[in-house]
Amino acid sequence: MIRPTEMLSAKTLADPRSRQARADLATFASDERMVQLCNLEAMDQIRRWRADFRPERVVPYATAEEKIRGTTIAADGAAFRSRKNWYSLKFKCQLARDGESVIGFEFLVGDPVAREKWDEFGLPAVH
Asked: Tell me: the pLDDT tens digits for 9-21?
């Protein structure tokens, strides 16, 4: 697992270009907001880890439901989309006590997901 020392999602959300994303997050129920914050952290961390990836979407439940325990989310069956392809992903995300910011994150990028599996896993071909 890759364990970054700097969390990136708060900086992304603070950017003026993220105004709509901040507004959308405010409308979500607590668990969904935490999942979306972790998805954003995943995209930011993958982008920083490998510049050739351009993550644009994360599905935390592609091959297995994500598990939420308190303020920790474990997504062992996640996937992310980059440059028109889906890749398997595993991550663990720790949020602050209030669930409003990411304070810990680790991830592992796996193999590309075979195109013939996209429908089965609910992975759209177009963003």
From this structure: 999 999 999 999 9
Cα separation, 39 vs 59, in Å, equals: 8
Total-model pTM: 0.94
C-alpha dihedral over 118, 51, 48, 69, to 10 degrees? Answer: 10
Cα–Cα distance measured from residue 117 to residue 82, given in angstroms and rounded to the nearest whole number: 16
Residue 42 host element (H or E): helix 30-49
Q: How many CA atoms lie within 13 A of 90 on its CB side?
A: 7
What type of residue is 76? D
Residue type, 30: S
Under DSSP, is residue 114 helix (H, G, I), strand (E, B) or coil?
coil
* Other residues' Cβ atoms within 10 Å of the Cβ of residue 82: 19
Q: Is 69 exposed, middle or buried (CB count within 10 Å of its CB: 0-12, 13-18, 19+)?
A: exposed
How far is CA 72 from its chain centroid?
A: 13
